[in-house]
Design brief:
- Strands 1-2 form a two-stranded antiparallel sheet.
- Helix content is 75%, strand content 1%.
- The protein has 18 helices and two strands.
- The protein is globular and about 70 Å long.
- The protein folds into two domains: 18-213 and 229-408 and 415-448, Up-down Bundle (Growth Hormone, Chain: A), CATH 1.20.1250.20; 455-499, no CATH class.
- It has 506 residues and is mostly helical.
- β1 (7-8) and β2 (17-18) form a beta hairpin.
- The protein has helices at residues 19-26, 29-51, 55-82, 92-107, 117-149, 153-183, 189-205, 207-214, 231-240, 246-276, 283-308, 310-327, 337-373, 378-407, 418-443, 450-464, 474-484, 492-505; strands spanning 7-8, 17-18.
- α3 (55-82) packs antiparallel against α14 (378-407).
Length: 506
């Protein structure tokens, strides 16, 4: 949770992280939280119900857009680590990206008057790629900042919690307000979606100047190009090396499991209320209940993460989420409104951990990477995180949903057969349940916690100061190998120090 006093303690040589900095960093994810929620909840519905694109083509469009992400996200992380600017190597993109953030969100919702499936597919694929490009431009550098602003375990957690609190507030607004805007245009849904795009495009663009003014970067990290190859092969090679990091591999599985389950839930929620429950008017109440509970629980999960570790907080949350999904089997079209709201709130209590914890983990796997590579590669990992976020939604969840709807015989704007509804509900419950179990299994193998990170941080400080790898304590060696997944003697920060010492002696 955000600390109540005016500043957080800083390590020697670090700037203190004050409350204004915690808040300033957090507001950047107004864009990250709200934009993806709106796209995840409404864009598929917009394409099939308003534009008239076939569900399978709509799903394919998201998958095709990920080809660009596979290039742009690693590239942006690489560029972010190497940018030289008077405005900072990362923060400069907040200034350059604000206008594209607004414009690309607006054009996504332009209703194109065409009966050609090919024309519709081409336009919305192009608009989606532009949106992804703007998102990558600001969110990749943004995700790299906590690792640079502080090395303290709890301060980083506060930065990440602030980010996700603002993301949650944005998600709450995004869950309720778009439906209100669309409801104001009952006879012109295309106009309603365009107005919604203009309103939220403006909201998503404005915070970036404030983020720029209240954050900073560690100047000691400087240019990270030393020892790396250039060109396309070099960029790809540098990006793929993150998979050697055991903590990151487990983090990747936890992230994909939680966010794919979340995207499936959110994308199908409108269909669930409209066709299965036959209660479309409850959308704002149901989604609002889920989002409020998700937001309220974030400080609680932060406290658990600080005391017991992130894997514990994640496991508790996903277990609650699983129970909430089971409770939906007790709901039906005749269920009381309060019962529906309570079940949604229960689900939100669990999804809170799934949303929060993967982003809290990122700065700590970056520390493991520094031990392994001898470099501070926040941009590379932030690029990977941005790519994962978009792959989860655009290449996994939404294409899967599009093909599922078509395969079960779903027909837009019509009453569905009982067989179609039964297949739909099985998918709606079953897929998140499987992913939740997979996420909990991955979390059981995650070993970064307050104790092990303290050991890692002490070792990083010792090695940065010129300490020799041969002097490492046995328990420190064991923990470093546990977190990295490679022998301690293969860690380049350690071997670099020993090589430097041998050179001095020579």
């Amino acid at each position: 949770m955000i600390k109540q006093n005016n500043s957080d303690p800083a390590a020697p040589g670090e700037r203190p992280v004050r409350l204004i900095n915690v808040i300033g960093y957090g507001v950047g994810d107004i864009y990250g939280g709200g934009a993806f929620l709106i796209v995840g909840m409404l864009f598929m519905f917009f394409l099939t119900e308003v534009v008239g694109l076939k569900p399978a083509l709509a799903g394919l469009m998201f998958g095709a857009g990920k080809i660009w992400d596979g290039i742009s996200d690693p590239l942006m992380g690489y560029i972010s680590d190497r940018t030289k600017s008077s405005h900072g190597r990362r923060r400069v993109y907040f200034l350059w990206g604000a206008v594209p953030v607004a414009l690309t969100f607006v054009i996504l919702w332009l209703p194109i008057p065409s009966d050609s499936q090919a024309v519709l597919f081409a336009y919305y694929l192009f608009a989606y790629i532009l949106l992804d490009a703007a998102y990558t431009m600001v969110m990749t550098p943004y995700s790299a900042l906590p690792a640079e602003m502080s090395a303290d375990f709890k301060v980083r957690n506060r930065l990440s919690t602030s980010r996700l609190l603002f993301s949650g507030l944005s998600s709450l607004v995004a869950a309720v307000v778009p439906a209100m805007i669309l409801g104001a245009f009952p006879d012109a849904p295309g106009t309603g979606h365009l107005v919604m795009g203009i309103v939220f495009g403006t909201i998503f663009a404005l915070p970036w100047v404030f983020v720029y003014r209240t954050t900073w970067e560690n100047p000691a990290h400087g240019d990270q190009s030393a020892g790396t190859a250039s060109g396309a092969v070099g960029i790809l090679s540098d990006f793929l090396t993150i998979l050697r990091n055991r903590s990151f591999r487990i983090h990747f599985l936890m992230y994909v499991a939680a966010y794919t389950a979340m995207d499936v839930l959110m994308a199908l929620f409108t269909y669930y209320l409209t066709y299965y429950m036959r209660r479309p008017g409850l959308y704002s109440l149901a989604m609002g209940s889920l989002m409020v509970a998700q937001l309220v629980m974030m400080p609680a999960y932060t406290a658990i993460a600080n005391r017991r570790g992130k894997a514990t907080a994640y496991t508790i949350g996903l277990s609650i989420w699983a129970v909430g999904m089971v409770l939906t089997t007790q709901l039906g079209p005749e269920s009381a409104t309060v019962a529906i709201a309570l079940v949604c709130a229960f689900i939100g209590t669990g999804t809170s951990a799934g949303v929060l914890i993967p982003y809290m983990i990122l700065p700590f796997v970056i520390d493991v990477d520094e031990l392994m590579t001898g470099r501070q590669r926040s941009g590379v990992y932030a690029g990977a995180m941005t790519l994962m976020r978009k792959l989860v939604q655009g290449a996994i969840a939404l294409p899967m949903i599009g093909f599922m709807l078509q395969s079960i015989g779903f027909i837009p704007n019509q009453a569905q057969s009982q067989a179609t509804l039964t297949s739909f509900f099985t998918f709606f419950i079953g897929v998140p349940a499987i992913l939740i179990v997979a996420g909990i299994a991955a979390a059981s193998r995650f070993r970064i916690n307050p104790r092990t990170h303290a050991v890692l941080e002490r070792e990083l400080i010792r090695l940065r100061a010129g300490g020799q790898a041969s002097e490492v304590e046995p328990e420190t060696r064991r923990i470093c190998e546990l977190l990295s997944g490679i022998p301690y003697d293969s860690c380049q920060l350690a071997t670099a120090r020993d090589s430097a010492d041998e050179g001095d002696r020579a």
